[in-house]
Structure formats: C-alpha cells, structure tokens
Amino acid sequence: MIQLEQVTKTYPKASRPSLDNVSVSIEKGEFVFFIGPSGSGKSTIIKMLLHEVAPNKGRVVVNGKDVTSMRSWKRPHFRRSIGCVFQDFRLLPNRTAYENVAFALEVIGKTKAVARRVVPEVLELVGLGGKEHRYPHELSGGEQQRVAVARAFVNRPLILLADEPTGNLDPDTSIEIMRLLDRINRTGTTVVMVTHDSNIVNQMRRRVVEIESGRIVRDQARGVYG
Amino acid sequence: MRVKYVLSEVLVGLWRNVTMSIAMIITMAVSLTMLGASGLMYRQVDDMKDLYYKNIEVSIFLTQEVTEQERTDLQTKLDSDPLVKDVLYVNKDEAYKRFKEMYQDAPDLVNAVKPDQLPEAFRLKLNNPEQYKDVYDQYKDTAGVEEIIDQSRLLDKIFNILTSIQNIALAAAIVMAIAALLLVANTIQVAAYSKRREVAVMKLVGASNWFIQAPFVLEAVVAGLIGSLLGLVALVAAKYLLFDGSLSALQGLLSPISWGDILFIFPLMAGVGGLVSAGTAWITLRFYLRV
C-alpha cells in the first residue's frame, strides 16, 4: 500500500537531511505509528505521502502510484484516496459539523444529495450523532477532532494519515480518538499515525517505526514507545 | 450545484471587499473607455482618410505666359504618366467660374478679380495620393509650370493631430490598465487570504485546481465585465453630449460616429477587460496559492 525506498530528503539550507536513506513498506490494512523526537523527520514522511514535498533521492509509492514522478496536476485526484487529520483540526469555523464534512464532498464534485445520505452516517460513526448542527466553537477539542476524522473518512479513503492527532487533547479524549481510529482501521483502511504520545503507543500495541535524526532506528511489529 | 456554488462565491467575494471591488471596477472602466475611444478614433481616422483622400487633387498651376506648345506637351506627359489617374484641364474662364462659385458670398472679392488674372491649371487625381512627392519632383521644373499644390499635405496635418490624440488616449488606456491590473492582483490576494482556510481544506481533500481557482478568476472577470459596461455607458454619453452636442458644428468636418460603431467596439472592450482580468487573477493565484 505504501512503500518508501531509500528515501532521502534534505531541505534547502538544512545542515543534515530530514530523512536519510529511509525504507519502509506498509501493507494494506496495517496500523503504523511513526514515533521519534521533534524534528526527527516524521512529518516529512506525511508530507511526502501527500505529494507535498518530493524526495531528493529514492522512490515513494502510494496506492500503487509512484508519487516521486507524479505531475502536480494529478495531485488533486490522488489526494481523494487519502484522508488526513492534523493536530490543529483545521475545521472551517463558520460552518457546522455537518457543513464541514459536506464541504469536503462538495468541493470534489459530489452532489448535495450524496452529502445528505453519507454525512449523517459518518458523523454517527465518529460518535457525533445529534451534534451535526453545532459550530466548531460549540464543540470540545475531542469533538472537533471527531469532525476532522469524519471529514477525512467520509470519502472512504484507502489510507488515513494522522499527524499528531492527539497533540491538543487530554489523555482520556486522546484514548477515545484512538478507539475511533482503530475502528476505522478495522474497516480495512490503512492508518499511518505520527505521534510522540507514549501512552497511546503503549496501549495500542501496533507496529512502531522509530525515527531519529532522519534514520529508522527501530521497526517493531507490536511495539511500545520504548 | 457546482455552478451555483461558484457563482455565489463570486458575488460573496465581490461584496466582502466592496470598496476594493469598486476601485477595481472604476479603474477598469476608465481604462476601457480610453481603449474604446482610441479604437473609435482609429476607425474615425480611417473613415475620414477614405473620404478625403478619394477627393484629393494635385493642382499644377501654369504661368501667365505659358505657350500653347508648353501646355500640350505637359498635357501629353500627364496623360501618359502612370502615377496619374485622371487629368482635368481648367482654363482661365473655367477657373473664374469656379472662383465665383466658391466665393459667391463675397461679391467684393469676385469683383476685384478679373477672369484672366486666374491661372490655368491641370487638376490631377493620383493613383496613390501618397506619391505626391514624385509628381512634384517630376513637374516642378517643367516649362510653363508656376506652382504645384497638393491638398493632401494640408490633410496630413489634420490627421497628424488626430493620430496624436488617438495615441494619447491609447497611452492613457495603458497606464490605467496597469493600475487596474495591480488592483485586480491586490483584490485577488485579499480574497485568497480571507478564504485561506477553505482553500487549505480544498487542497487537502483533493478539490481540482480549477474548482479552487474559478471563484477568484470569475470574480475578476465579473469586475472586468462591469467595468466594460460602464465604459460603454461613458462612450454613449460622450457621443450624446460631445459629438451630437457641443461638437455638432464640426459635423461636416468629422465623419459621424454611429451607434453601430460604438456597439462594434464594445466586444473589444469587454473582451480585453474580461481576459486581462482573468489572466491577472490566474497568475496572482499561481504565486499566492501555489495551486
């Protein structure tokens, strides 16, 4: 599903590479944590999978598509197969939970009728049934992140990328979000999550890839934060 | 749905930043009015040239002492000259008749001139009025020729003035167009900034580039089209107030501007206004949104 083959990325003006000869292979339906200290290169991986930054060397293959050689005009269509969740939620403040999720469908050309059918369904799935018409500022942090997960998942992507999705949440809420991601993973969606929340990694007991200074120092099937 | 979404985004966009939108539309309107005026003058000058140059004559006046022989020689030469289309000989009596007609309102002047004071002349029509110089050089030293006068030289002066007015209008149109372009670029940047969250989400979930750009580009196009409509109104007003009003005394001199001419120039204004705005907006977005 996702292959990084000897990927090296050095940002301009950086003294050392963010990623240094990294190779990882992720199968369909896997749940993988990328862990490591700030600046270790975890987020660069997410950006590469989104075709936002290109590697200097090596190959990135997502969904059978070689992202390295992908032309930028193909990026929009490519991204429709990937859901994405961030630490800062990135919701539109002047739209309700329903409208935020529907927006993601409408801007890729789905009709309002499709939105009316699938949005309540996915909001129910993330546990926000009954709160469809609340605005983000009327929701708690955990609930806002659920809206963001609903938006990422509404298009039934093959891959869900999560960049420190619990970074702004308290431990209990974080666990609830993790249960949600776990449920999404069980539908067959590949989940890649970048985090440095050791509690969560230790509880989930999923594959852990640890990165330090741009190199993989550990890749463990049922790992802990360590 | 998508069309409705895009259109409502355009209107909301123009309204959100209404002072800037108005500034953009006004500059655009002034620029396009200048462009339209310059275009109309171009046609005007062309029409006038056709009208005047068709009737233009070169007159070769003969000396009082011209001999029969000199006159027939000149006549044969002119008849066989490839530059000359038409030759008309005007003898003294005829010249006097024309003179009387021309100055019938000034009987004193007519009375003061005797028929044989007026020179005989050949009136020539040239195949190409611009080859006057060649004709002049060829005949100026011929025996019996007093003076050669070319009407087109007078007209050239008038047309030079008209052409420079036209160039000034065009220059003003270009300067205003630059101001309009900068305003469009600025408006689009402000619009893109105020919608940066939406744009970020759209890019994230894979909205196509045209879908992200269309509302911004159309916003500029709508402003450009409104500007060209205002320019049309300005031209209509100018025709109504200036040409049909205070300048109507010059009607015999200037060829008339018809409503058809103005309607003909409008697509040019609307096209330039719309395309230039769209291009500017699109380029601005390339730099600003990186989509």
Automatic annotation (TrEMBL), chain A:
Pfam families: ABC_tran. PROSITE patterns: ABC_TRANSPORTER_1 (PS00211), ABC_TRANSPORTER_2 (PS50893). GO terms for molecular function: ATP binding; ATP hydrolysis activity; transmembrane transporter activity. It is found in: Cell membrane. It comes from the Bacteria. Belongs to the ABC transporter superfamily. Part of the ABC transporter FtsEX involved in cellular division. Has ATPase activity. This is Cell division ATP-binding protein FtsE. It comes from Micromonospora acroterricola.
Automatic annotation (TrEMBL), chain B:
Its main location: membrane. The keyword Cell inner membrane does not apply. The chain crosses the membrane at residues 21-42, 168-193, 214-242, 262-285. The keyword Cell division applies. Keywords: Cell cycle, Cell division, Cell membrane, Membrane, Transmembrane, Transmembrane helix. It is found in: Cell membrane. It is a multi-pass membrane protein. GO terms for biological process: cell division. GO terms for cellular component: plasma membrane. It comes from the Bacteria. InterPro entries: ABC3_permease_C, FtsX, FtsX_actino, FtsX_ECD. Forms a membrane-associated complex with FtsE. Belongs to the ABC-4 integral membrane protein family. FtsX subfamily. Part of the ABC transporter FtsEX involved in cellular division. This is Cell division protein FtsX. It comes from Micromonospora inaquosa.
